[in-house]
Design goal:
The protein is α+β, with helices and mostly antiparallel strands and 624 residues long. The chain folds into 3 domains: 11-30 and 441-538, Immunoglobulin-like; 36-92 and 107-135 and 186-430, TIM Barrel (Alpha-Beta Barrel), CATH 3.20.20.80; 548-623, Immunoglobulin-like (Sandwich). 23% of the residues lie in helices and 26% in strands. The strands form 8 sheets. Strands 2, 17, 19, 20, 22, 23, 24 and 26 form an 8-stranded antiparallel beta sheet that branches. Strands 3-4-7-10-11-14-15-16 form an 8-stranded parallel beta sheet. Strands 18-1-21-25 form a 4-stranded mixed beta sheet, with no helix packed on it. Helix 6 runs parallel beside helix 8, helix 10 packs parallel to helix 12 (357-369) and helix 13 (389-406) packs parallel to helix 14 (420-430).
Amino acid sequence: MKKYQRILSFTSILFLLISPGFSQIKLTVNPESEVRPISPYIYGRNNSFSSTDPTAQMSAADLTRIKDAGVRFFRENGGNNSTKYNWRKKLSSHPDWYNNIYTNDWDNVVLNMQKNFPSAQGMWAFQLIGWVAANNQNNFNDWNYNGSKWWEGVNQNLAGNGVLNPTGTKAKVEGNPKLYLEPWPADSSTAILSHWFDRLKVKKENARYWNMDNEPEIWNGTHDDVMPSLITAEEFIQRYIKMAISARARFPEIKLTGPVTANEWQWYNWNNDAVEYNGKKYNWTEYFIMRLVEEEKKTGVRMFDVIDLHFYPSTSSPAEIAQLHRVFFDKNYVYPEANGLRRLNGGWDTSQNKEYIFGRINGWLDQYLGNTHDRTLALTESGINTEDANLSAIWYASTMGEFMKNGVEIFTPWSWKPGMWEVMHLTSNYNKAQYCSGTSDSDEKVGIYPSKNSNGDSLSLLIINKTATIQSVSVSFDQYILDSDVPLIRIQDLPKAETFVSKSQNALVKETIKPANNKLNVTLKPYSVTIAMVKGHKGIYQEATLGTENREEVIVFPNPAEHQLNIELPGEEIKSLEILDMSGRVVLKGKSPKMILPEYISKGTYFIRIDTGQKTVVKKLIVN
């Protein structure tokens, strides 16, 4: 045993002291691999401002929450309510509320947004359905009916003198949409650009992103007052082309996003089927890309910039929710709710069960545009079926991590639940600007998404425990040497109620850990999110032991020492020196190979840690 003790380095001793007694999941970080910028627009939200009250101003509390959380992207078009928005009259039809017409003032919202968040980006929408709100004189009087309370019949088409059905979702007599809507061609829709930029002096650079309407595959449901039967996919494409040409002419730098599909079924289906074109059947998203690329080649006009999807899984199983982030890029993940996917190749293939929808879209973009295209991806609506704040947090963090890793440009969840503000604050404020490689040997349990700054001397490791049990992880580093202790910032054990108020009032738990053998050993609570803030530098870590085979690599004399110490490392330049006591506490730092030992260093056993920038060497020291 005495001989064994003589050859252990300090970091090896520390590793033995702090390693848990159960199996660890191994995480690996390589700051030099898979480096790509992280889009700031993944830190996004829907509906942060009120557009229904023309005099509304954001409260001080909401303003602080949004600013401190670090929201960078605001999708403020209102989803379904954007389809019939009339910017001239500042009115919109609400299809999920009797089709009633209410005030909707995007002018007020965009000016408030750019005033309070001058560096943030906004997203709006053009109206492709062809009809928009005309007046609010023909609304159904929901207040007189039931005090404006929700019930199963709020989707009845009662605006325009419809006749109420006291049960169900269909009116006894449908309202007449011509009483409350007016025709709206493409040029009327895109004229908002001239209104904003020329009259209101809205900053173009902060209003670049525009949805090409919203969820057109289900217009015969959400907007069945004007479209009881869905138009063909090609008819929609023709409307899209007109709008894109008009928008690009008014604003060449615009970012057009589509098809803004409703959910997994609609990713692949138009009107519940494949789309036939030139004798072949295509799934809807592939058809959308292929046809618009064809039109680009014909017209010379760029038709789209971002492929934009929505996602609303129905599962309430915690184990399934914890894996939903894998739907987008994981080629091995069998998605339990895969359904529309069976339409992938135009037929109906029940063997298809692996979505990786964004991975597939990247493949179609490469196929039709070549692999040097600059088109990107967005998820502008999503929501999950849980009230567990910890589960919401790990779903949101995991999805954000996948989007960091794979270069998704925009992420704006629609349903906002407790736990998500905490994750937004943690990631937006503590992630670095560039993603770099992180792997897990058990990714279904614990995921890691590292990021680094431009100098490479700071890393943020986003680590997510996706299980309902405690997990122990060991984080190792390739081509990187840790310089100091590592602060951890955690989201864990959240209550049901919202906890995030501001940077100073939130649920973050902070602590600091010591590296062991250039590794981090961390215990993660169930359904928790952790960021480790790492300082270090590029280099190959080499742990030196004190056996006879390394005796000449580093020379420390005298050893035992009393007042003065000399250190030699032949052929190497010493960058820094540290003397550590047996508890791992640094008692003396320096750079000179000649050190004077101060009186406060008492007699005993210590370790000298020598860093050359390329490796770290540890040597035992006795002080008499």
